Amino acid sequence: MEFTNDDIKQFVYHSCQLLDEEIFSDYLALFDVEKTRYRVTAYSPELRKDMVWLDHQREELEIMLKMIPEHIRMPGRFFRQATVYSVERKEDTANVVTSLLLFHIDQHGQLNPLSAARYHDQIRVGRDTLAIAFRDVRTDSRIFGAGIHVPI
After folding, report:
1. Which residue has the higher pLDDT, 51 or 145?
2. Of the ranges 9-18, 31-40, 47-56, 67-76, which one carries the lowest mean pLDDT score?
3. Considering only CA atoms, which of 140, 136, 149, 142 is closest in space to residue 38?
4. Separation between Cα atoms, residue 55 and residue 118, nearest integer Å
5. In this prediction, what percent of the chain has a pLDDT beyond 70?
6. How many CB atoms lie within 10 A of CB 24?
7. Contacts of the segment 67-73: beta carbons below 8 A, 24+ positions apart
8. Count of alpha carbons within 13 Å of 12, Cβ hemisphere only?
9. C-alpha angle with apex 103: 98 to 104, nearest 5 degrees?
10. Are 92 and 115 spatial neighbours (Cβ–Cβ below 8 Å)?
11. What 3-state class would DSSP assign to 68?
């Protein structure tokens, strides 16, 4: 099976849907078994450099996702609005840039914006599978408040 750029876009959108629905085991299954890296960074104008908030390999990401039920939560749910900007193919890899808006909907139905970010994904394109090898979440938002317990 040959994957098209549309297949790759749908794969990225599906990753957001799994996070929205908090199906973390299926989300983790989207990542490359042999090589996974998930990183969250934000640029600090005061420091004039990126702050690295999270930098996990697959095993650490798996532990983090399993521990989510133990966290203090913000009441309500999260909603992601993603738009894939570009897909650049090189042999068995696709570099994908996605614009992401993350919202929190509280228990009263109030919508609150939390983050404007971009995914910079490196997706392994196999013969029969797609897998995220590296997801670099670059957020422009630096204040989230207490209780954000899920990946961006």
Report:
1. 51
2. 67-76
3. 136
4. 16
5. 95
6. 19
7. 68/22, 68/24, 68/149, 68/150, 71/147, 71/149, 72/146, 72/147, 72/149, 73/147, 73/149
8. 31
9. 150
10. no
11. helix
Q: How far is CA 138 from CA 90, 124, 142, in A?
A: 22, 20, 10
The CA distances from residue 6 to 29, 59, 84, in Å, are 20, 29, 10
pTM above 0.90, yes or no: yes
Rounded alpha-carbon distances, angstroms, from residue 72 to 75, 115, 139, 149: 9, 19, 22, 8
| Side chain identity at residue 125, one-letter code | V
Residue type, 86: S
Q: pLDDT tens-digit profile of 45-77?
A: 899 999 998 899 999 999 989 988 887 777 889
Can you tell me which residue has the tokens 């029969």? 128
Residue 35 CB coordination number (10 Å): 14
Tell me the sheet residues that pair with 95: 88, 122
What is the tens place of the pLDDT at every residue in 89-104? 998 999 999 999 999 9
DSSP state of 31: B
